[in-house]
Amino acid sequence: MRITRMALQYRKRLIVGIIAIFLASGFQLAIPILIGSAVDAAIGLDGGTVDLPNGTVMRAIDSATNVFGEGNNPPKTALIIIAVFLFIASVGRGMSAMFQNYMGESIGQHIGYDLRMLYFEKLQRLSFSYHAGVHTGDLITRGILDVEGVRMFVQTALLRSVFLVVLIGTGMYLMLSQDLTLGLISLSFVPFVAWRATATNLKLRENWYALQDRLSALTKVMDENLGGIRVVRAFSSQNHEMKKFDVSSNEALALANTQVGIRAKNISLMGLAFMISMAAVLWVGGQRVIDGELRPGELTQFIAFMSILLEPVRQIGMMVNGYARGSATGGRLFSVLDLDPTIQNKPDAKDLEITNGTLEFHNVSFGYEEEHTLNGVSFKAEPGHTVGIVGPPGSGKSTIAHLVPRFYDPGEGFITIDGQDLRDVTIESLRKAVGVVEQDTFLFTASVEHNVAYGDPWAPDDRVTAATKYAQLGDYIERLPGGYDTLVGERGVSLSGGQRQRLSIARSIMLKPYIIIFDDSTAAIDAATEQRIRAALTDLTKDRATIIISHRLSSLMHADEILFIEAGKIVERGTHAELLANGGHYSDLYELQIRPSDDSRRKHDEGGLSQ
Amino acid sequence: MTARETHTRNHEIPPKASIRLGSTLDEEVFGEAFNGRVIGRFLAYVAAYKSLLAVAISAVIVFTISSIAMPLIVKNVYDDALDLSSPSRSKLATMILIFLVAVGFNFIANYFQELIVGRVAERILVDMRRAMYEHLQRISLSFMDKTEIGKLMSRLQGDVGALQEFLQTAVFAIGDMVLLVGIIAAMIWLDWRLGLMTLAVLPILLIIRIIWLPYARKSFLRARVTSSIVSGALAENINGIRAVQGLSREYVNFDLFDIRATDNLNAAKRASKFGVMMLPIVDTLTGSAMAIVVIVGGFFVLGGTIEVGVMVAFVLFVQRFFDPIRALTMHYNVLQRAMASGERIFEVIDVPVDIEDKPNAIDPQEIDGSIKFENVTFGYLPNQPILKNINFEVKPGETVALVGPTGSGKTSTTALAHRFYDIWEGSVKIGGYDVRDMTQKSLGRHVSMVLQEPFLFSGTIFENIKYAKDEATREDIVAAAQAVGAHEFIMKLPDGYETELEQRGGNLSLGQRQLISFARAIVADAKILVLDEATASIDSYTEMLIQQALQRLMEGRTGMVIAHRLATIRGADRIIVLQDGEIIEMGNHDELIALGGLYFRLYSMNYASFDDIPDELIQQATQAAQDSST
Question: Are the Cβ atoms of B287 and A275 closer than 8 angstroms?
């Protein structure tokens, strides 16, 4: 499995971890033996000689007594020595457990970090077509929960499973080799507990997912209710809303109760199995002691063994869960990491060389599946010139804007800047040369200044202020309580649609692109402000190619060429005056927008434009 | 790879970044762990489950006692049945039987404590969340206006969860306490000298943990906080991926993300160091305790002071008594969180409901659809009236357009017709009834509202149009959609009326959402319709549809419209021009033009919408209107 391979990179930690595992198991298992010996030593054979059944411990005691000299009370000496051993074994167990756990966790965390970075990098490189097709929430969940799942898998399942195998294996061997029957009885709880732990853990996991699902449905209900509280009040629909809440809430509650029920049943049953085998050990072992076949200390040893094994056996369930979760989450994560971005630099891609900055579309077609959103579009935008693009919603206007910075590649035809096919140049150099001002502006949770300077993070402050002035946003920002340091975005001051668009314009100006595209990016800005922005921009755009996409004709009627697009095709082209003279779609639209009077509406109804 | 490294590393100054460090650190560490008021309030919710909880607590006690009894029984097995000088099979059998009885009790008590505690905690969680949510449905909009939804959501979820955790913990903490006391008592009862000596390690552990806890908690918290920063950065980058790629920020962001992820890695490693540090300490102390038992206990056994069973019981107890201490110190944290959460929850529940139905509020079945404002004065903040002495009347079936610059009081006027807020002076009458004398439910039935931002819920289009009108049939819904011209585009969607809407109707265009919200208002079928026309510019094609839909919507209803489009304004029967909370002009389009006041000036600027007029021009017009009138 790939995760295991990743773990192998941390060889040093792994080796330390594994050594610690063996030490920990050894110390752990020594403890019951020592306790057993202690009991036997204490029962003390009044005669003064100590004879313990366990050879190793006996030999150790013998050699120790030799070193320290024969005391006059051998059992006492033996007890002291056992106590010392017990102490050492406990400390040793603690230390090795510490190393083992720490190594496991740190490998897990390092792998989590590696995966996070890989994931982040991959997401940044994946093209628009990918991002448009997936739910952002899913991507975020993968990046957070799935990485966490893999980390937990490494941490709990990988090293710990080795530990459990070693511990349970050796423990079982020791018990069985000492007394087969008693050993079997003491271990009888193991399969049951292991089975319960595994089965319920998987069941709990399934239930947990269902519960999370219900909980997020509940969250949605509450979130929408609060977000739409005015609608709720306006329709006086509090009862309706409470009903929705109760349905979701009760569904979640039912699952939560199932969860509690499964867990309660499971925990108590596992405890029961353990205690019943303990009773059986006491019964059978007790008989043996009475028959003189077994020493009391040995019986104690079995009981102590059992209590040591209980916890690890319970953890098997956790591990199985870890495996299941790890493989599911790992699979999902790797499915993203293995994707190839559809838009990539060609191996021999060169940086774009701008000679004068002419953008040209050569018979470009583009489509998702069968439907073509663009069909044989050709036009040329020269420096200092403005091309306006207008058309009904869904006609393919925005697609043109997305093709230029290579957010997508055209299906047929090609696009050039100064004669270089966009697919032959590096994406970085292309995107530096082209600025697209989008309709929806995403604000990052940061200061206004940082948002404006987003594409040029080391820009000096005066350039930032200049850019906002161009976008007619400077005055507003200066009036904000914190000025340019005011926090905006999700957790900051909320800007109106028009302000966001102006910020977006400032952002693009910062990059000083050779070709600038306004993708319906003034829709929420009032006409007068737009006028002023355009006036301010004239000296910036005088040697650059500008493309304005808009449904508001006043935004683009001054363009050098206007393209009217319908169903992905250019149906009319020319200057404002030419198009008006033509009396086609464009002039209809003009009539509609300039005079929204009853007459034009009637004309519209009778047949003109239909959607 | 190399390109990335050279990209930022050669800059001395940090890049202009995004996502900053959260400051939740202090807030969580220094909360109080006990707050009588919060606990008192909380107990009121718990009281509903008094008898169940009593059962649960008895189960916890039975469980604890039986857990302590078992080692004691084992001791007796050794001392009575397995005594080497007089072993006895019958005694062994009796002991095993007693042991099994204890096992039985233990099992049953264990099952019920887990089950009842868990379920009651879940139940109380639901109760509290419901209480808070229901309260939020009733408290005034002025509160909702100034509260962030995210904050309320975190109270409904996180804070309620913390209290649930608290309840579970509290019950189990009782168990831990009983267990600890029980073990100590049992050990001292078995042999007080050995008991005291063994227990000597307990205070040491306690002291170590008390010293360790604040540091450890801080490191755990730091790991949590850094982790949520990383998650935040990831989420932001995914949400803003277009901006990131469009502006070529990938390399910079990768480096910034790396810094945060590394931060988190280090914090997490530090936290796990603190976590694992406890292992050798606990084990050393266990080892010491066992060594004491072996030496002292062993000597006692040898000397005949105690029997060997006592020693066995001690060994079994020693392995158990660290758990409750560990659990109890951990619970402290939960307590702290719960108190802070409780404060926040009750803060919401305590917000007074200022708009309530009068005890004898009426619910007229039919009203005539008139609206009357008489000497209405109203504001959101004391001494800052937004509306001053407003008087006007809308006759049944009439459409009135409210016009005026931003902040003139248009939105407040519409909100008052629905009694979103209570006025300071005067009266607002709907169909001749004062809105304060009607039930809010009744108002909702007679007055429906279309808001500027068309808010849709998740669910199907069908459900959205139907919304709270449970008795509406499918025909009603389709008819409404047809009336506003939404039927066609709905039918073109993959599942027609059954198409599931994404969050906030994200899979529809703004214009389409608007039409759906119109259809929703038609289905609600109120006599009076209050409408806040959208200002956002919609493409001319959709605009056309919306204007037509608007006319259908108004048919046969009394309308009060905050109008932005000239077309809508001109279509109204009467226009009310508001400025600074006062009505300055009233009349139909022709009358107002003839009047030559503010309306005339705004109209003659020839903008398609009043919102397109720049602020300065409005100010000039206002000034000019005032000058000419004086």
Answer: no
Check residue B30 and give its pLDDT. 47
Instruction: Report CA dihedral (A159, A163, A166, A167) to the nearest 10 degrees.
Output: -170
Q: Decide which of B361 and B627 is more confident.
A: B361
Q: What is the pLDDT of residues A156-187, one digit of tens each?
A: 777 888 888 888 888 888 888 888 888 888 88
- The pLDDT of residue A512 is above 80: yes
Average pLDDT (B212-239) is 84
Residue type, position A545, single letter: A
- Let me know if residue A314 belongs to a domain: no
**What b/e sequence results for B578-601 when a residue is b if at least 16 CB atoms lie within 10 Å of its CB, and e otherwise?**
bbebebbbbbebeebeebebbbbb
Interchain contact, A257 vs B122, CB within 8 Å: yes
- Give me the number of domains chain A comprises: 4
Contacts of B504 in chain A (CB under 8 A): 224, 227
Q: Can you tell me the distance from the alpha carbon of A165 to that of A172, in angstroms, rounded to the nearest whole number?
A: 10
Higher local confidence (pLDDT), B323 or A231: A231
ipTM: 0.80
Q: What is the CATH number of the domain that holds A434?
A: 3.40.50.300
Does A35 lie in the same domain as A123? yes
Helix (H) or strand (E) holding B428: strand B425-430
Summarised one tens digit per residue, pLDDT across range B300-309 is: 888 888 888 8
- A207, pLDDT greater than 70: yes
Mutate to test the interface with B, among A13, A84, A230 (most CBs of B within 10 A): A230
With a cut of 70, say whether residue A434 has pLDDT above it. yes
Same domain, A158 and A198: no
Judged by CB atoms closer than 8 Å, whether chains meet at A428 and B458 is answered as no
**Residue A303 within a domain:** no
My answer on whether A400 and A271 are in the same domain is: no
Q: Strands B425-430, B371-378: parallel, antiparallel or unpaired by DSSP? A: antiparallel
Do both A501 and A547 map to the same domain? yes
- B122 and A253: CB-CB below 8 Å? yes
Spell out a b/e string for B348-371, using b for 16 or more CB atoms within 10 Å of the CB, else e.
beebeeebebeeebeebeebebbb
Residues of A in contact with B281 (CB under 8 A): 94
Specify whether A114 is located in the same domain as A191.
no
Q: Of A86, A241, A269, which is closest to B290 when you measure between CB atoms?
A: A86
Q: Is the pLDDT of residue A297 over 80?
A: yes
Structure tokens that stand for B61 in this block: 């006690």
CATH number for the domain that contains residue A51:
1.20.1560.10
Whether A528 sits inside 8 A of B613 (CB atoms) is yes
Measured between alpha carbons, how far is A365 from A592 in angstroms, rounded to an integer? 30
> How many cross-chain Cβ pairs, A to B, lie less than 8 Å apart?
435
Å between A528 CA and nearest CA of chain B: 6
Containing structural domain, residue A277 = 180-293
pLDDT of A365 strictly over 60: yes
- Assess whether A135 and A232 both reside in one domain: no
C-alpha to C-alpha distance for B202 and B205, rounded to whole angstroms: 5
Rounded to an integer, what is the distance from CA A160 to the centroid of its chain?
25
Rounded-to-integer distance, Cα A200 and Cα A265, Å: 10
Place of tokens 């264990």: B110
Can you give the pLDDT at residue A369?
62
**DSSP characters for B467-535?**
TT-TT--HHHHHHHHHHTT-HHHHHHSTTGGGPEE-GGGTTS-HHHHHHHHHHHHHHHT-SEEEEE---
Measure the CA–CA gap between A200 and A268, rounded to whole angstroms.
12
**Residue A428 belongs to a domain:** yes
Please give the Cα distance from B236 to B257 (Å, whole number).
11
Q: Is residue A610 part of a domain?
A: no
* Residues contacting residue A250 through CB under 8 Å, at least 6 positions apart: B126
Do A516 and A370 share a structural domain?
yes
Residues A449 and A532 placed together within one structural domain of the fold: yes
Give the per-residue pLDDT at B400. 92
